[in-house]
Amino acid sequence: MPFTPFHFGPALLFGVPLRRRLDFVTFLIANVIVDSRATLVFFDVLSGRIHGPLHTYLGATLLAGVLAGGVIVCARWRPAVMDRISSRPGSVGAVLLASVTGTWLHVTLDSILYTDIQPFAPLSINPLYGTTSMLSIYAGCVFALGLGVVASLPTLHNWLNETN
């Protein structure tokens, strides 16, 4: 997507109800970290296609492993911080699930929109491209953001009360 924040909509919509099964903060990060390389290409720090290897399921899975490892190390290194921001601090399974599903959700959404993405690389195919319109994806992401914000209000309220 041209604006990575669009990915926060589906992340919130799916992440809030699944927060007991996956680490919510990791899931949010996983949904946007896939665009880290694309951002560097966009700003001419790196060269190549905007949607490169991280926009494949294989690349996203490897990135998910790196993200999960980083979160798990942070949870061990700074448990007090992770206890405050994480829905499942220290749960390796919840962090792995959040990392993989978040990165894969990103790849899936972008695969529908862009011709240069090859989600099943090394195969040069993208059967997801054009399965729905760009407007539908963007509108769906904005709608998901609204629903996700509404769904997260009780959780946010409880979290704020716990920190005071």
TrEMBL record:
Transmembrane segments: 55-75, 95-115, 135-156
Keywords linked to the UniProt accession: Membrane, Transmembrane, Transmembrane helix
Name by which UniProt lists this protein: Metal-dependent hydrolase
